[in-house]
Structure formats: C-alpha cells, structure tokens
Amino acid sequence: MNLTVDNVSKNFGNKTALDHINLEFTTGVYGILGANGSGKTTLMRILASVIKPSSGQVFFNGQDAVIMDHQYRELIGYLPQHVGLYKNFTAEKFLKYVATLKGLSKGEAQEKVDEVLALVGLLDHRKGKVGKFSGGMKRRVGIAQALLNDPRILIVDEPTAGLDPKERIRFRNLISKISTNRIVLLSTHIVSDIEFIAKEILVLKDGRLIEKETPQKLLKGIEDKVWTAFVSEAEISNFQSKYKVGNIARAQEKFQLRIISDSKPHVDAKNEVPNLEDLYLYYLDGEVIV
Ligand SMILES: Nc1ncnc2c1ncn2[C@@H]1O[C@H](COP(=O)(O)OP(=O)(O)OP(=O)(O)O)[C@@H](O)[C@H]1O
C-alpha cells in the first residue's frame, strides 16, 4: 500500500499554506509536527479529499485520487480537529447514524458499531450520552466513527489537544493498536504524542516540508547540539536571546538551562542525549508542549 503526495501546493488567496510537498507513505504511523499555521491541517484535508490542491496530485497505489473519486474517499477515515458530535445521542446511536451516512446497511452497521466500540474501549458506555463523556471518551468516539468504514488511510488532526496525560497515553496506545495494515497520519504539536509510536516524523514549517525521518535518525542529527548549563538568574535572559532554550529548572541558587546550540554555549555546559522536545525546538523554534 502506497500513498504519494506529488508536488502538492495549496494557496488561499496570496497565502501559500503548502509549498511543493512531496511525500510517500506506506503502512504505519506518521507523525506530522509543526507550529500553528505550518500547514498540517491543510495537508490532512487534501489527503482526506476535503479540499483540492492548487497544484500537484495525490496517488494511491499509483492511481490519481481525483480520478479514483469515491473509491479514494472510501479508503479514508478522517477525524478533524473539531468534530461535531451529537451531544444528545448515545455513543451507539451516533455511530449507527454515521454508519448509515457512510452507506452501511442496517445489519452491517450494527456489527461494525459493536466492533468499533469494542476497539476504542467504549462498549460499556454505548448507552451513555456523548455530551456527558470526558474529552478522551469523545475523542475515542471520534476515532470510532472514522473507523466505521475500515479505512486503509486514517487521518487524525490534533487528536490529543486538551486531553489529560492519562487520556493521551490511552489514545496513543489506541492509535498504535489500530495502525496495523493502515496508513495512519497524526498531526500534533505535542511531541510526546508521537515519540514512541511514529515510524516517521514529518516536520512542516511555513508550508514547507523540512524533515521526514525516523525519530531515531532525527534525534541522531542533533546529537551534539543539546546541552545543559547552570547559570545565575540574571544570566537567563542573555542565554535566551542567544540560544534556543528549553527547560529551565531551579537548582539551589542557580538555574539549569537546557540549550540547543551548534557550539558549546557555556564553559561548563554538558552535552545531553537529545529528545524529541529538543528536536522540536531545534527545527521549529516555537512553542514546546510535552
Ligand atoms: N480556508 C482558509 N482560508 C485562508 N487561509 C487559510 C485557510 N486554511 C488555512 N489557511 C492558512 O494557511 C496556513 C496553514 O494553515 P493550517 O490550518 O493548515 O495550519 P496548521 O499547521 O494546521 O495550524 P494549527 O495547528 O493552528 O491548526 C495558515 O496561515 C492559515 O491561516
């Protein structure tokens, strides 16, 4: 199975949201990292066939997605960032409703709804009203609806935003479980969401693809660029203006800074093993959420 993005660009007026993107996906989980506005949602909406690229094409197993039309859309499960769930519906009723919209017969719908409810761990809550569910449970209902047509390509946009750490771990494990035999694309700006489950990480910046690598290779690339140094409170802002500074931890009278720098930033700075948070900081220089 092979999903190819061939020279795709997308413009909104004179704003370039995606700039000549080339990508290839096979079975497994891909994490899409990028700051706000980097083009993650635009890329996902193009792959989900919600919007068309301004130029370039998407191919599935060598066939043009536009020409495949509904055959392509049948391959897709899509969980947008903001999904409208019918609050007064029970989980079961909502999923049956979506199954009908997706063209499943009554018998097929019942069977499939049971299956996806079990998969996302909501079988015991099938009669619960969606509006009363926790954030994590709502997100699992969202995944369940995206799985109803047993999609080959599952696209989930910022699925863990607003979830507490326990729910995020549960969601991560769920994604891992359902990634067998599927291409799963998951966008986030929460680095730890994809650290352990992504086979490759794509880094988008200002609509351009700046990296696509395994997490291990990406980390290896910044091996000698992560440092910690102890500085006084007065020195912190100086370091922040000169370097990309991650964690700042109080250590008795001093502060320990985690610094990303090509060269040793302080005489006593110590080299550290990089993590994905460092990577994010290195590439995106932006807000870091772990
Ligand atoms: N329908 C639209 N009309 C005009 N501009 C748009 C539209 N959709 C996206 N953009 C712009 O394109 C750029 C990329 O947006 P996109 O939503 O793809 O980014 P993102 O990486 O998903 O960001 P976020 O994390 O905030 O969702 C942004 O500058 C955005 O303002």
Task: Explain the overall architecture.
With 290 residues, this protein is α/β, with parallel strands linked by helices. 31% of the residues lie in helices and 30% in strands. The protein is built from 10 helices and 14 strands. The chain has helices spanning 40-47, 65-68, 70-73, 91-101, 106-119, 135-147, 165-178, 215-220, 236-242, 276-284; strands at residues 3-12, 15-25, 28-34, 55-60, 63-64, 76-79, 153-157, 183-188, 200-205, 208-213, 226-231, 244-251, 254-260, 270-271. The protein has a 6-stranded mixed beta sheet with strand order 6-7-8-3-9-10, sandwiched between helices. A 4-stranded antiparallel beta sheet has the order 2-1-4-5. The protein has a 4-stranded antiparallel beta sheet with strand order 12-13-11-14. β7 (153-157), α7 and β8 (183-188) form a beta-alpha-beta unit. α4 packs across α5 (106-119). The mean pLDDT is 91.
Q: What is the compact description of this entry?
A:
The protein is of the alpha/beta class and 290 residues long. The protein is built from 10 helices and 14 strands.
What would the average pLDDT be, to the nearest integer? 91
The helix fraction, in percent, is 25-40%
Q: What's the β-strand tally?
A: 14
Output the number of helix runs: 10
Gap from first CA to last CA: 32 Å
Largest sheet: 6 strands, mixed
Net shape: globular
Which ligands appear in the coordinates?
adenosine-5'-triphosphate
Pfam family, one: ABC_tran
Protein name: ABC transporter ATP-binding protein
Organism: Litchfieldia luteola
Family: Belongs to the ABC transporter superfamily.
